[in-house]
Amino acid sequence: MSARTSPPPLTRLVHNASDTFVLAQRNLMRYVRLPQLLAFSTVQPVMFVLLFNYVFGGALFLPPDVDQYINYLMPGILVQTVLFGATQTTVGLAEDLSKGMIDRFRSLPMGRAAVMGGRTIADSIRNVFVVTLMLIVGGLIGFRFQNGVLAGLGAVALVILFGFAFSWISAFIGLVTRDPETAQVAGFIWVFPLVFASSAFVPVQTMPEWLQAFANVQPISVTVDAVRALTLGRPLDPVWPTLAWIVGILAVFVPLSVRQYRRSV
Amino acid sequence: MSDDPAIRVDDVAKRFGQITALDGVDLEVAAGTVFGLLGPNGAGKTTLVRILTALMRPDRGRAEVLGLDVGRDAQRLRPRIGLAGQYAAVDENLTGRENLRMVGRLYHLPVAEARRRADEVLNEFGLEDAADRPAKTYSGGMRRRLDLGASLVGRPEVLFLDEPTTGLDPRTRLDMWRLIERLVEGGTTLMLTTQYMDEADALADRIAVIDHGRVIAEGTPAELKGRMARDVVHVTLGPDADVDDVAHDLRSLAAGETQGDRDARHVTVPVAEGTQSLLAIVRRLDETGTRIEDIGLHRPTLDDVFLALTGSGIDDGPGSESAAAPEGSSS
Fold it and tell me: How close does chain A come to B255, measured CA to CA in Å?
């Protein structure tokens, strides 16, 4: 018998990283092969930027430190975009399950987190692309980082990180729902109340009190506030709870989805 | 060490809720042989393959592949086995070449080696011309070949093929058989599942017939056929021959009871030596001046075996009989 034993920890780490990279590459190839997919997943957020700005912009009383709605809107819509984008992971994993790809991956000597890691990292890379495009369009209609480029880049990094964490929730949902059509609905449905009952588009103070209670504490509001703090130059207090949410979500949903992946039949 | 079986299954059972998928299966597969798991849909074949490829844990019992426990040593086992499941598990957006390279990389082959191996497999499986087209443009047979190729990228010592030809047209099916025959020539141990008797017959060295989660018969194709049914010579007599006389006369050449059917003018002779027996019967009939209309040798197929095995005992055994029995009959 050949003397192949368990690889040492360092080798295993290198293997895990390589597996994740190979799968992220695979998931990104989808956009190369189906350019229309990338086009539509970019058109939608850009459309939202323009629509929200011109439709809602005139009706809102803005906080005193915000000169125009686009500067208030941009952080909210960036966060919305990465959340909607995370549903790609839900659908993608459900498809992989239903088409037998997950069986093949699970029969290979791969890292147990690599399939989900490849998805969530591919999501994040696509998010970088889409967010950049949105910032360009936003810039054309008046959006500016009020607090300098460095803080602006920090804001973008926070948005991408938050999207990465949410993709792990989406991964878990995809592995649980299993069926791509169900995943399409299940991947989206829970995101809507979170995005709209938040500070993403309107100040929370304009909502009924019972809703404010929810809107103030939920992670989307916290994150949008943190991104706004960085782009508008407000006090950076909401940044820390945002980082805590990101770490918390990852700490719960990485092990949960790995467990679900290992059990998926 | 080559005497150790490549696969050893000991009293493995698995339930899904109310359904018993496997109900105490014992098997051994010798290294370098082809083992066929033959059974209808839902017999438990796929469940057994999933357990042996460490995709699923048995509720009870022990399963070893290459001497490694599929539960405890799964990580050490995976680099040494290959699986092609019931679906052609290929990424439709990637080309054939990209699919194989991806699998090579996931077996942790170095980049250059993964590339070379992908080219080799494309070549072996006759896919070079389509290598750089997205897999979604492939025909069903090409996808299956690509899928089978992917399971071989890591040069597995034991290969599992779950219904490799289900859904393929007859010609493509034969192509797949030829591919499978060629790849086991290299000494790979193969376990394949199939619903097709002819497939198991053509490819497998040994067959286990599985039904309702149990192995109901096991042996070489010849043994299975021999166990259940003998070769039979059917003779249809001309109008002037006496059926009973001929049936009586041929008894000396038969391996069992001959049977005559006067209305059909038909005599059935179980025989032991196939064609030789057929020739002996023809000579005998010629010597006695018996006129015949037709004569033929019927060899039992695995279909016959399977019907005999599953038809009796498991489904419509005593249950259907007792239902028809008159009520109130004493026990």
Answer: 47
**What residues in A contact B88, CB-CB < 8 Å?**
100
Would an 8 Å CB–CB cutoff place B100 in contact with chain A? no
Distance from CA of A55 to the nearest CA of B (A): 39
| Separation CA B266–CA B116 (nearest Å) | 63
The answer to whether residue B317 scores a pLDDT higher than 80 is no
Whether A223 and A158 have beta carbons less than 8 Å apart is answered as yes
For chain A, 265 residues long, give each residue's pLDDT as a single digit of tens.
Answer: 444 456 678 888 899 999 999 999 999 998 889 888 888 888 989 999 999 999 988 877 788 888 889 999 999 999 999 999 888 899 999 999 998 899 899 999 998 899 999 999 999 999 999 999 999 999 999 999 998 999 999 999 999 999 999 999 999 999 999 888 998 888 888 888 899 999 998 888 889 999 999 999 999 999 999 999 999 999 999 999 999 999 999 999 999 999 999 886 5
All residues of chain A having their beta carbon less than 8 Å from the beta carbon of residue B106 are: 19, 22-23, 105, 108-110
Q: Are strands B189-194 and B158-162 parallel, antiparallel or unpaired?
A: parallel
Phi/psi zone of residue A70: left (φ > 0), alpha (ψ -120 to 50 degrees), beta? alpha
The answer to whether the CB of B9 falls within 8 A of the CB of B48 is yes
Please check whether residue B224 is in contact with residue B39, taking contact to mean a CB–CB distance below 8 angstroms: no
Give the whole-angstrom CA distance, residue A113 versus residue A204. 37
* Nearest-angstrom CA–CA distance, B75 and B54: 9
Q: Is the pTM of this model over 0.95?
A: no
Any idea which residue has 């926070």 for tokens? A158
Picking from A168-172, B18-22, B145-149, B235-239, which range would have the lowest pLDDT averaged per residue?
Answer: B235-239
The one-letter amino acid code at B291 reads: R
Of B55, B79, B134, the CB nearest to A109: B79
**Interface membership of B86 toward A (CB under 8 Å):** yes
Say how many C-beta atoms besides its own lie within 10 A of residue A248's C-beta. 13
Distances (CA, A) of A183 to A104, A148, A190, A263, B307: 21, 40, 12, 18, 42
Structure tokens at A124: 């994040």
Residue A228 structure tokens:
């706004």
State ipTM.
0.88
Q: Which residues of B touch A101 (CB under 8 A)?
A: 89, 91
Tokens of A45: 């957020």
- Do the Cβ atoms of A167 and A90 come closer than 8 Å? no
The first and second tokens of residue B175, run together, are: 């192509």
For B125-182, give the DSSP string: TT-GGGTTSBGGGS-HHHHHHHHHHHHHTT--SEEEEESTTTT--HHHHHHHHHHHHH
Q: Where are the beta strands (DSSP E) in chain B?
A: 5-16, 19-30, 34-38, 60-65, 68-69, 81-84, 158-162, 189-194, 206-211, 214-219, 231-237, 259-261, 266-271, 292-298
Q: B214, B96, B213, B82: which is closest to B144 by C-alpha?
A: B96
Name the 3-class secondary structure at B123: helix
